[in-house]
Amino acid sequence: MSDSKKKKTDFQSAQTLFANYQLKDKGGYITREFQDYGYRLAVELGDLAHKSLYIKMAKEIERAILEKALSFVIDSQADNKARLFMWKVKQLRDEVAKPVTMDDKISQ
């Protein structure tokens, strides 16, 4: 087997591999997934002044509700996306908390 046919494998250390990647500094200490999600909500809604509120919401409110509300807001052309998001979250939480009565079952 000649030298030209041999595959050359060049191994690099993990340190040199990751030296080329730069992470964006978000200006804080985000150590949990819900903190990152809350921060991303604030960025999407253009409301970084209230990012702690969104982090708290990401921790305490079901993710499905937040994602539905965010999808609703992104599809809209609202001027104040943060206000519309809060309204939609409240509406979705009220729908989940509303007990189903016999009248509701009969009318369906």
Task: Describe this structure as you would to a colleague.
This protein is mainly α. It has a domain at 28-98. The protein contains six helices and no strands. The chain has helices at 14-18, 33-45, 51-60, 63-75, 81-97, 102-107. α2 packs across α3 (51-60) and α4 (63-75) crosses α5 (81-97). The radius of gyration is 24 Å and the shape is elongated. The mean pLDDT is 85.
Question: Could you list some keywords that capture this structure?
Answer:
single chain; 108 residues; mainly alpha; elongated
Could you outline the blueprint of secondary structure elements for this entry?
Blueprint: H1 14-18, H2 33-45, H3 51-60, H4 63-75, H5 81-97, H6 102-107
Helix pairs in contact: 2-3, 4-5
